Backbone:
């Protein structure tokens, strides 16, 4: 009598989509419409489609298109989560990704149809190991923000230096010295002024608008395929 085949291993992707709302980091959650945990808030995720997805990152990008209606300008592989205990349906592997998206790029209809932005300090109990995945994403983003241009992906395409500093402070969760911050930006050499573009700050003198230099955009998009 032939030996019974082992049960299949479930293979999925989960995406931690982070954005800034009212100066605080928020994560996108969706209502699960199927068991297990039907009706619970969870990270956007789904099975890898072997016949459709070229790799796990393509699966994550498809999940974002299907469940949030967008293509993230920044998508980075975080880690692999696996084991018998993380999913009641059986032994599973989930490849987790982090996406950074400015709030204005989030489609309004996505937030009106079973999705919500929730502050990272106000998360409900999440199914599977999604709470752990969110914490890994926050640690990764905050760590990289100490030495790279990563928070720029939470900004509009053009921004002033005070606006950029405010984004860094929101991500890191602490105030930054203005002089030290600007010195660090100069050392990184990642920004360029937008010719002739100024931001009017009401009673204040118009401020120069900046953007990320093209070579840094290319570098980050390449490194985003997983570290």
Residues:
């Amino acid at each position: 009598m032939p030996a019974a085949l082992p049960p299949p291993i479930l293979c999925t992707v989960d995406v931690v989509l982070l954005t800034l709302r009212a100066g605080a980091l928020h994560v996108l959650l969706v209502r699960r419409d199927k068991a297990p945990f039907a009706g619970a808030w969870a990270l956007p995720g789904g099975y890898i489609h072997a016949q459709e997805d070229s790799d796990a990152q393509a699966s994550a990008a498809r999940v974002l298109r299907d469940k949030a209606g967008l293509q993230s300008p920044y998508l980075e592989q975080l880690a692999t989560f696996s084991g018998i205990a993380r999913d009641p349906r059986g032994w599973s592997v989930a490849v987790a990704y982090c996406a950074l998206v400015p709030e204005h790029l989030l489609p309004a209809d996505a937030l009106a149809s079973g999705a919500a932005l929730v502050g990272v300090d106000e998360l409900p109990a999440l199914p599977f190991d999604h709470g752990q995945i969110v914490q890994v994403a926050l640690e990764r983003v905050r760590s990289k923000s100490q030495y790279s241009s990563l928070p720029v992906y939470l900004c509009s395409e053009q921004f002033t230096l005070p606006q950029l500093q405010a984004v860094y402070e929101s991500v890191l969760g602490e105030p930054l010295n203005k002089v030290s911050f600007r010195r660090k930006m100069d050392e990184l050499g990642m920004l360029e002024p937008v010719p002739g573009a100024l931001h009017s700050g009401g009673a204040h003198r118009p401020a120069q608008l900046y953007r990320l230099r093209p070579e840094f955009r290319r570098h980050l998009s390449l490194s985003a395929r997983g570290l």
